[in-house]
Design a protein that fits this description.
Elements: H1 3-20, H2 26-43, H3 50-55
Length: 59
């Protein structure tokens, strides 16, 4: 696992926890989560990353 995948998981879990607690802090954490998800997709990590799905030819 890369550090962006780990950071994406941690910020995602924290964001969900903050939503359950109804804390306004979930918005900046959610934005950070999106950033790490996009970084992971840009690096092409994972077998079904959005970048690979978007680049695959349609049949």
């Amino acid at each position: 696992m890369t550090w962006t995948e780990i950071a994406g998981f941690v910020t995602g879990a924290l964001c969900v926890w903050l939503v359950v607690k109804r804390n306004i802090g979930n918005f900046p954490v959610g934005i950070a989560n999106l950033y790490f998800i996009l970084c992971t997709a840009h690096l092409g990590a994972g077998p079904a990353s959005p970048a690979k799905i978007a680049a695959s030819p349609s049949r």
